[in-house]
Write a structure and sequence with these properties.
CATH class: Alpha Beta
Number of domains: 1
Helix content: 10-25%
Largest sheet: 8 strands, mixed
Number of strands: 13
CATH architecture: Alpha-Beta Complex
Order of helices and strands: HHEHHEEHEEHEEHEEEEHEEH
Shape: globular
CATH superfamily: Oxidoreductase, molybdopterin-binding domain
């Protein structure tokens, strides 16, 4: 009797293409994730206390926050900063605070890290692109720094300038933005207790892709408002220009409060995708911090002042 030999199975019959490609993407992330974990082991922050300002939500895994980043100076793809910023030099470092202040001053990074007791603040972090995560930052209220320089009566706004070095950041030329990166807040926003000067996350010093060695965190605004690797803060009488507002003013307003009722021109802001979840969830006004910050905008039209 003739027995027909079965045809050799195709690879796709054994492993579906979608799973194969997903595995490849997972393996591609492993080097960055490994580097992130290895770097954390050497930079534990001492005397870190839990903050009453924290959300009770469970933080995302550390690899979410350290391998999925927006930092255009180190590339426009989410995976690039973890790879391309690993040799970024953050020592020595200084942060100059000047402008409408009685006591202008330049702070060393050691002075910044010891200026106030470090707190761990578990904050919601929402990106204008529609994704979000929960991150335990380490730092203290920005007001602690600003109080050191004594803002004068003329100070109404605060401008933030980030570090820029084309030699260390060659990918910046492909970003389509003018550098150094500039951001800004009203003074009362900057002095709000939730506005944070961060020097770490997950109990460790900041990694380069997360804005080392010192960055801003404004949890009720979209993530691009929270400037990384700060080198200069100016207190001003007039509203400062900001990088994304200069680039695309119809898409990125000065305030950029998280607002599900104001869509980005190219996508809805009514829902968001928490990293690690498949289902989208409703976006919360002010990213869930409305009880604390809504009074800052009393009487303002937040659709006009987006």
């Amino acid at each position: 009797m003739l027995i027909r030999k079965p045809a050799s199975p195709r690879y796709s019959d054994i492993t579906p293409k979608s799973l194969y490609l997903g595995r490849r993407r997972f393996l591609a992330c492993l080097p960055a994730a490994f580097m992130a974990r290895r770097a954390f082991a050497a930079a534990k922050l001492p005397n870190l206390k839990p903050s009453p300002l924290s959300t009770s939500e469970k933080p995302n895994p550390v690899t979410d926050a350290t391998t999925y980043n927006n930092y255009y100076e180190f590339g426009t793809r989410k995976s690039q900063p973890a790879e391309l910023a690993k040799d970024f030099k953050t020592e020595p470092w200084s942060l100059t605070v000047e402008g409408a202040v009685a006591r202008p001053r330049t702070f060393s990074i050691d002075e910044i890290r010891t200026l106030a007791p470090l707190e761990e603040r578990i904050y919601r972090f929402r990106c204008v692109e529609g994704w979000s995560m929960i991150v335990p930052w380490a730092g203290y209220s920005l007001s602690a720094l600003l109080n050191q320089v004594k803002p004068t009566g003329k100070a109404a706004f605060v401008s933030f300038e980030t570090f820029y070095d084309p030699a260390q950041m060659p990918q910046a030329k492909f970003a389509g933005l003018a550098f150094p990166y500039q951001e800004g807040l009203r003074l009362d926003e900057a002095m709000h207790p939730l506005a944070m000067l961060a020097v770490g996350l997950y109990g460790e010093s900041l990694l380069p892709q997360n804005g080392a060695p010192v960055r801003l965190i404004v949890p009720w605004k979209y993530g691009f408002k929270s400037g990384k690797s700060l080198v200069r803060i100016r207190l001003l009488e007039q509203k400062p220009a900001t990088t994304w507002n200069i680039r695309k003013p119809q898409e990125y307003g000065f305030y950029s409060n998280v607002n599900p009722a104001v869509d980005h021109p190219r996508w809805s802001q009514s829902t968001e995708r928490r990293l690690g979840e498949f289902a989208r969830r409703p976006t919360l006004p002010f990213n869930g911090y409305g009880d604390q910050v809504a009074s800052l905008y009393s009487g303002m039209d937040l659709k006009v002042n987006f």
